[in-house]
Amino acid sequence: MTDPGGWTLRAARRQLVLDGLGIMVSAAGFGFVYGLAARTDAHFSPIEAMAMSLIVFAGAAQFAAVGYVASGLAWPGIVLLTGLLNARHVLYSAALAPWFRGRSLAERAVAAHLLTDEAFALAIAHFRRLGRFDGFGYWFAAIGTTLIPWNLATLAGVTLGDAIVEPERLGIDVIFPAAMTGLAVGLITGRRELVAALVGAAVGVGVSLAIAPTIGIIAGGIVGPAVGLLVPSSKAHETAPLGTEASADRYAMPHTLKPDPPTDEDRT
Amino acid sequence: MSTDYVPLAVLMFAVTYPFRAIGLLAPAIDRLPKPALEYLQLVGPAVLAALAAVDIMVGVENDRPFFTIGLPWLAVGACLALVVWRRNLFIGLAAAVAVAVVGRALGAA
Questions:
Q1: What domain range is B94 assigned to?
Q2: Do both B73 and B33 map to the same domain?
Q3: Domain boundaries, chain A
Q4: d(CA A83, CA A96)
Q5: Which residues in A lie closer than 8 A to residue B54 (C-beta atoms)?
Q6: Can you name the residues that pair with A55 across neighbouring β-strands?
């Protein structure tokens, strides 16, 4: 039987699992590195590192927290920056909401905690293929490919952290900035994001040199987006507000869905 | 075993969960002013880029920040190029680590 999106449920799930395997490997590797960094840079205990991975469950914010703690930033600053860093989840949540219409409050509440960049990307693509919600798709994306490998790898990384006596020789010190850079690239989908990133970096460095690194990071995170908004709408790749047809093209709102054409193989 | 940072994790959760839940639990996010939505969309790249740039370009000695150039630039640059090319963070991280390890084995700072 074929769903409104043009894919059979079986074919769509098969594609989801294939895509998810790459995310799974990435989450495991990244989680291991986070565990190592948490142990060696911020001197987190295994309980503290695991608490971050289970309770916060936000890779970029966790990596950032390691850097903040290592640099001695006060907790209010860490919490503020975590909020800023994770504010983008508003967009994911809003984009997924139409697909979750009719699901129970409890299911939506749990789904919200497990909403990550990876889960969003996998689930929204899966729903687009099907043209409808699929519970297996979301939970596999959120738990199977991200939550489980991320937490197991965190535990492995933080447990082995003590054995790493010279982290610089193993290149561990470059993992944090490299991870931040890679995650930023993943979020750059248009000129506004690019300008925000470049200005954020420039302001961050400038203010850091003039005042202090912790202030510089906050300044970059606040000023960058403001300057990014100055890019004219006509030149921005994506400026449409959520709920419009243009936004639907990006976030795949179901009411204006244009599903990807399936291949012959997928129709079998 | 220390649990000092567990409350910090709870606080980080407390500021993260509302962003994740607001759309799913109270789907009225499209009623926020358009500039607010657009600003939020740009926060992620800006904060992450600032973190990375400050980490590799700013050093601190005796509480005085200074501009620094070193092997991490090359390592992060390799990661950046690979992530842009392959869209795979894991490969990018592996390349960054490889550059740092090889560079230091060859005596680079």
A1: 69-109
A2: no
A3: 9-175
A4: 20
A5: 204-205, 208, 213, 216-217, 220
A6: none
How far does chain A reach from its first CA to its final CA, in angstroms? 9
Judgement on whether residues B56 and B77 belong to the same structural domain of the protein:
no
B9's tokens: 């994790």
> Does B54 contact A at CB distance below 8 Å?
yes
Considering its fold, how many domains does chain B have in total? 2
Q: Are residues B43 and B94 in the same domain?
A: no
- In DSSP terms, B60 is beta-bridged to B65
Q: H or E stretch including B60?
A: strand B58-61
Rg of the Cα trace of chain B? 19
3-state secondary structure of B67: strand
| A185 → closest Cβ in B43, B84, B97 | B84
3-class SS at B65?
Answer: strand
* Interface contact A178-B96, CB threshold 8 A: yes
Tell me if residue B64 falls in helix, strand or coil. Answer: strand
Identify residue A144 by its one-letter amino acid code. Answer: G
Any chain A CB within 8 A of the CB of B13?
Answer: yes
**Residue A84 DSSP SS3:** helix
Cα-atom radius of gyration of chain A, to the nearest Å? 20
Alpha carbons within 13 angstroms on the beta-carbon side of residue A188 total: 26
Residues B10 and B56 in one domain: yes
Distance CA A79, CA B13 (A): 9
Same domain, B49 and B79: no
pTM of the predicted model as reported, rounded to 2 decimal places: 0.67
Tens digit of each residue's pLDDT (9 = 90 or more) over B3-55: 999 999 999 999 999 999 988 998 666 566 778 777 877 877 888 899 899 98
Show which of residues 10-39 on chain A sit within 8 Å of chain B, judged by CB atoms.
22, 25-26, 29-30, 33
**Whether ipTM exceeds 0.90:** no
Q: Mutation target for B interface from A86, A96, A218: give the one with most B CBs within 10 A.
A: A86
Note whether B23 and B55 are same-domain residues: yes
Nearest-Cα residue of chain B relative to residue A57: B13
Q: Inform me whether the C-beta atom of residue A197 falls under 8 Å from chain B C-beta atoms.
A: yes
